[in-house]
Write a structure and sequence with these properties.
Residues 1-18 form the signal peptide. With 286 residues, the protein is α+β, with helices and mostly antiparallel strands. It has helices at 2-10, 62-65, 81-84, 170-173, 190-193, 200-203, 231-234, 251-254, 259-267, 275-285, and strands spanning 15-17, 28-36, 76-80, 97-104, 119-128, 151-155, 181-188, 240-242. The structure holds 2-acetamido-2-deoxy-beta-D-glucopyranose (5 copies).
């Protein structure tokens, strides 16, 4: 009942349709990178395993607790929806690994060009919902505010990533967190490049790809036998944009770190919401 109330409060009335089609992006290119916080043990859109510490495991139905094991102990990211390939749940990007290299910032004045090369291999475990003007607003025909079609929203801070991962110049800028970076990305095999490659539980949550609510292959290659289909295409769901959004995560923590809060920060509105919250609440209602 409680969960149902939550669902009705936060999820039910918020979707509108958008138009577009998935982005067929090259294996290597440039993108924007933001970062966001997710609670320990959270199972995001792909359904990849969570961290080993689940805050309230008794709330999760058994099929979920089964999958809770370890992805968040390693670098993960959400990918912007139209590149991710689904508007809900899993999509073809789930489980894919990308080597992201920081190039420069540009929302700062002046732009910042680090004098060190910083790279990180992330695994995609989450969907960054399409928004009208935020960092995840890129479509086949429209770039995001950083002039890119793709955004990676990395889970950070994370015990898997050093706190000083992002270069900065505090004495000049007066702050250390630039929020948004211009990055280059390379598609890389998760094995052996991803830090979690040796942890079987972290690598993936499903061995067979079927009509389940989760799909997180260990090492997707693009072949249909090891790569997730689009959940929304398979279930004839529209490209949805969550409106009115405010996530349940702490605003102070997420403020301007992620797609949703970056946008909220810019516009003083709260126009986006993480789909996974709805999915999670939905899973509690079944
Ligand atoms: C990631 O990119 C950096 C910078 O180009 C490179 O030095 C590094 O070897 C790459 N890592 C992988 C696993 O490809
Ligand atoms: C910070 O930026 C200023 C101005 O560009 C520069 O003179 C200084 O060397 C930089 N410091 C570091 C640590 O990068
Ligand atoms: C991002 O980096 C690419 C490659 O260096 C560059 O062409 C592009 O102008 C940069 N974009 C921004 C917004 O700085
Ligand atoms: C997927 O198919 C390819 C070729 O069709 C095959 O080489 C590969 O072993 C298959 N992978 C799995 C996990 O079945
Ligand atoms: C997946 O399962 C749902 C519910 O059983 C069904 O409505 C849907 O058509 C199925 N989709 C596919 C692609 O089989």
């Amino acid at each position: 009942m409680f969960a149902l109330t939550l669902f009705l409060l936060f999820c039910a009335p918020l979707y509108v349709q958008a138009t577009g089609a998935w982005i067929d992006y090259p294996a290597d290119g440039t993108a924007t990178m933001t970062h966001y916080t997710i609670p320990d043990g959270f199972i995001a859109a792909c359904g990849c395993t969570g961290a080993s510490t689940v805050r309230r495991p008794h709330l999760a139905p058994p099929f979920l607790t089964f999958f809770v094991a370890g992805c968040q102990g390693y670098p993960t990211a959400a990918m912007s929806q139209m590149a991710y390939g689904s508007s809900t749940a899993f999509g073809p990007a789930c489980g894919k690994c990308f080597n992201l290299t920081l190039l420069n910032t540009y929302t700062s004045d002046p732009p910042f060009f680090p004098d060190v090369v910083k790279s990180i291999v992330i695994k995609v475990t989450d969907l960054c919902p399409l928004s009208e003007a935020g960092w995840c607003s890129g479509t086949q025909t429209k770039k995001n505010p950083g002039g890119q079609y793709i955004n990676f929203d990395m889970a950070f801070p994370s015990k898997a990533i050093p706190d000083d991962f992002f270069p900065s110049n505090a004495s000049y800028y007066g702050y250390t967190d630039f929020g948004v970076w211009n990055v280059s990305y390379q598609t890389v095999p998760c094995l052996p490049n991803w830090a979690g490659a040796k942890n079987k539980a972290a690598l993936g949550s499903v061995t067979n790809l079927g009509n389940e609510s989760v799909c997180c292959p260990a090492n997707p290659t693009g072949n249909p036998n090891d790569t997730c289909p689009s959940y929304s295409d398979d279930n004839a769901l529209p490209y949805v944009v969550p409106l009115s959004v405010m996530n349940l995560l702490s605003q102070s923590q997420t403020r301007y770190h992620d797609e949703c809060s970056s946008y909220a920060y810019d516009t003083h509105r709260h126009p986006c919401r993480r789909l996974f919250i709805c999915l999670f609440i939905q899973s509690l209602t079944v």
